[in-house]
Amino acid sequence: MAGSLIQGAVTRDNLRPVTTQATQAATVADVCALLDSWYPPAWAESWDRVGLVLGDPDAPVRRILCVVDCVPETAAEALDRGADLIVAHHPLLLRGVSSVAPTTYKGRIVHQLIRAGVALFVAHTNADVANPGVSDALAARLGLRDLRPLRPAEGAAAGEGRGHGRIGRLAEPTRLGDLVRYAAEALPTARWGIRATGDPSQTVTTVAVCGGAGDSFLADARDADVYLTADLRHHPASEHASAGDGPALIDVGHWTSERPWLDGVAERLRNATGLEVLVSDIITDPWTLHEPGRASAGTTI
Ligand SMILES: [Zn+2]
Asked: Which CATH number does 129-257 carry?
């Protein structure tokens, strides 16, 4: 399996094989080229910023750390665990900056990584639409089958099952309440857990999922029994729930919805390069405290 992946990368992208046995060490540029072949930058949204953010392309790579967010905690983790390259899902620098002085939040991270010789690579919306991509990993944790894109990709990424989100079927019909409980066990949930709207006793079979903020795909999920995503905003979610003719909604939180992808990309990198590839379990959602509150009886599932 590893051999065929390496071979595929070599013929497709003119890479030299990168294995631990290779006489010449893998470089940042080698690993970036491999990631670009799986998640071509042309598949990213026009507003997105993907690819190598910082680091010397010629620097050797021995250990990689995969993270959802490059924040001070995960940057420190990369240094602690001896990683030479961070593969992150979210861009560190999305909007234009005029300074990376170490007196700024992001500038401190940039300085810290460059000083330690750690490179940073981002695969964001190009990894969302890929097949397999971010939502495939989420769907796999829930055991969904017969997957298709929730919104098929257009333009450069069109075709071959690519697109935003996934829609598929559970192995057998399940009560919504049981699916919520199962999702809380099957996914790497953050402290605030999972919230949902809908009748817990209703039967669900067809499930739409979307890693990350998914309320812009609410209309695409209308044929599903339930839509599991993150960051559902008050107005779109409550209007949808009040209409009563669409899927039940499950909001698992942003980090939880995208963390499963890290295992997939880490395994692909391990197989293709023979390098040591680590996955961060530091929860990078900003919410660190959770208190149910007096008025939150909710519905028992
Ligand atoms: Zn995201």
From this structure: 3.40.1390.30
Cα–ligand 1 centroid distance for 211 (angstroms) = 7
Q: How far is the CA of 213 from the centre of ligand 1 (A)?
A: 6
What is the CA(212)–ligand 1 centre distance, in A?
Answer: 4
Q: Where are the domains of the chain?
A: 2-127+258-279, 129-257
The residues near 44 (Cβ < 8 Å, ≥ 6 apart) are: 50, 124, 125, 126
Distance 107 CA to ligand 1 centre (A): 21
**Tens digits of residue pLDDT in 131-176:** 999 999 999 999 999 999 999 999 999 999 999 999 999 999 999 9
Equal CATH topology for 2-127+258-279 and 129-257: yes
User: Selecting from 3.40.630.30, 3.40.1390.30, 3.40.50.300, 3.40.30.10, what CATH number does the domain 2-127+258-279 have?
Assistant: 3.40.1390.30
Do residues 58 and 28 touch, judged by C-beta distance below 8 A? yes
